[in-house]
Design brief:
Order of helices and strands of chain B: HHEEHEHHHEHHHHEEHHHHEEEEHHEEEE
Radius of gyration of chain A: 12 Å
Number of helices of chain B: 16
CATH class of chain A: Alpha Beta
CATH architecture of chain A: 2-Layer Sandwich
Largest interface: A-B, 22 and 28 residues
Strand content of chain A: 15-25%
Distance between the termini of chain B: 41 Å
Helix content of chain B: 40-55%
Number of domains of chain B: 1
Radius of gyration of chain B: 21 Å
Largest sheet of chain B: 5 strands, mixed
Number of strands of chain B: 14
Number of domains of chain A: 1
Order of helices and strands of chain A: EHEEHEE
CATH class of chain B: Mainly Alpha
Number of strands of chain A: 5
CATH architecture of chain B: Orthogonal Bundle
Largest sheet of chain A: 3 strands, antiparallel
Structural class of chain B: alpha+beta
Oligomer: heterodimer
């Protein structure tokens, strides 16, 4: 699973870096860059996509775009 | 004020909920957790009637669904609406797609890189203020430190004369503090702030400078320059939104650290952990507990139908203690990770000043630790909270340090 960063939307909040530092870092323009080679669980990537305040991240499946499923399946009793 | 009797439940009925109730302001988490369990979408009859969304998912979805939950009315974010304005704050009170065009104009000014250049100035301002009271052995770190600190940083950030900070402090304090108790005073202060902004715009049109307002006079939207009313709209929100909120963030953080010596010691020994702790302080003691939106069309949230034209509170403070998202939400865990709090909101209107707020909170904590390492509350039982619960914090936080002035 890969993630695409929309650099126009990214504001450098750094939530993705905080949540999944193995994959994301901010470059010299303070835009998020995703390292596709890092080996992390899909659920953590989903959380980063989901938590981005600017909705600048898109999950990419093998067949193209995928919407972010809910990364927090726990429900109230 | 909610009426109580000894036999009744400890909290007022949801229909009488009031976020300005002092009991709620003291302990909002207890109310939120109860609502989340029993009635996550609440309707209160107060303030002409308003709804509250308390679950993280509902708040987040509503913040993203701007077509249903609109920001496009002056005063909509404040419950009860305190302002009588006929112009929108920009970009706060503008809906997409126009919103993005307005926001993009000032995005570079608020960027991480732009804000990062201020750090030495921010640190200087913090130290100047501490110099003024360090010999006294005691200080009110809200009124003598956080309040003037935030105003002075704002002038540096916008490149306004730093001497104007005292006026800004007075106006913004009157606007927020007078909302409930002195609306006429709040109106006068608001008019004074607008006058200051209008004068600054007129001056910069004649004498361009390298500053925020000059940048706005040169900006274009839809192929035309911004007009004076639009620039005023930017000025009002830029000069108010980041003030009480950041003061509250600093005051709450300093209170928490004074009351939790082990955490304070840990951060003193490992300052690299301070940014992570700040995120937790923002989650646990969110400076903005709730912000309003207005429904454009009828909508159903969690099985509850909300008609069109209703005021709906996005309860950031409740979302940030939702146990569907956060383990042990009632505990402040300074190294909590992951921490997907929404203290700065999410979606189109995510706080544009977040980088500045984080810088101010970090420098404030670092410099208080460095200069007043043994600071402690003068009287932990006497806490003066804000009288309103949407923007929650302390209005005073007297501390002693060194030999306590004695």
């Amino acid at each position: 699973m890969r993630v695409r960063v929309d650099r126009e939307r990214c504001f450098g909040y750094g939530r993705c870096v905080d949540l999944v530092p193995e994959v994301f870092h901010l470059d010299n323009d303070d835009k998020s860059v995703a390292d596709d080679t890092a080996d992390v669980s899909a659920s953590r990537l989903v959380m980063a996509v989901w938590a981005c305040p600017m909705q600048a991240l898109t999950l990419l499946g093998d067949d193209g775009e995928e919407g972010p499923p809910d990364p927090f399946p726990r429900e109230h009793a | 004020m909610a009426r109580r009797d000894d036999s009744g439940p400890p909290d007022p009925a949801p229909s009488q909920f009031d976020h300005n109730d002092p009991e709620f302001i003291r302990n909002p988490h207890a109310v939120y957790l109860e609502f989340q369990k029993s009635q996550p979408v609440v309707h209160s009859e107060r303030y002409g009637g308003y709804w509250l969304l308390t679950r993280y998912h509902d708040v987040r979805n509503a913040l993203l669904d701007w077509q249903t939950f609109s920001s496009g009315t002056p005063g909509v974010t404040s419950i009860p609406s305190s302002v009588r304005r006929d112009f929108p704050e920009i970009p706060l009170e503008v809906d997409p797609p126009q919103h993005a065009k307005y926001r993009d104009i000032e995005t570079p000014w608020f960027s991480r890189a732009s804000v990062g250049k201020l750090e030495s100035d921010v640190r200087r301002i913090a130290n100047d203020l501490i110099d003024d009271f360090i010999g006294d052995g005691r200080a009110d770190v809200v009124q003598q430190f956080a309040v003037p600190f935030v105003s002075r940083v704002l002038t540096v950030f916008l490149r306004l004369p730093e001497k104007d900070a005292d006026d800004l402090t007075a106006w913004v304090s009157a606007i927020f503090q007078g909302r409930l108790s002195d609306p006429e005073g709040a109106d006068r202060a608001s008019a004074a702030l607008i006058g200051y902004i209008d004068e600054t715009i007129a001056d910069r049109r004649r004498h361009p400078a390298d500053d925020y307002f000059t940048m706005l006079t040169r900006a274009t939207i839809d192929g035309r320059p911004l007009n004076d009313l639009e620039i005023r709209g930017y000025g009002v929100v830029t000069m108010t939104a980041g003030q009480e909120t950041t003061v509250n963030g600093i005051g709450m953080s300093l209170w928490y650290l004074a009351e939790h010596p082990a955490d304070k010691q840990r951060l003193t020994a490992d300052p690299a952990l301070i940014p992570t702790a700040i995120e937790e302080f923002l989650r646990f003691m969110s400076p903005i507990q709730l912000l309003g939106r207005s429904t454009v069309v009828p909508v159903e949230v969690g099985g509850t139908k909300i008609p069109a034209g209703q005021t709906v509170a996005m309860c950031y403070g409740a979302a940030n203690v939702d146990d569907a998202i956060f383990e042990r939400p009632e505990e402040c865990i300074i190294d909590r990770r992951p921490n997907p709090h929404i203290a700065f909101g999410t979606g189109p209107h995510s706080c544009i000043g977040a980088h500045l707020a984080r810088l101010e909170m970090r420098v404030a904590i670092e410099e208080v630790f460095r200069r007043l390492p043994d600071y402690r509350l003068e009287d932990p039982t006497m806490l003066e909270y804000t009288p309103h619960g949407d923007l929650r914090g302390f209005w005073a936080l007297p501390v002693v340090f060194g030999d306590g002035g004695g």
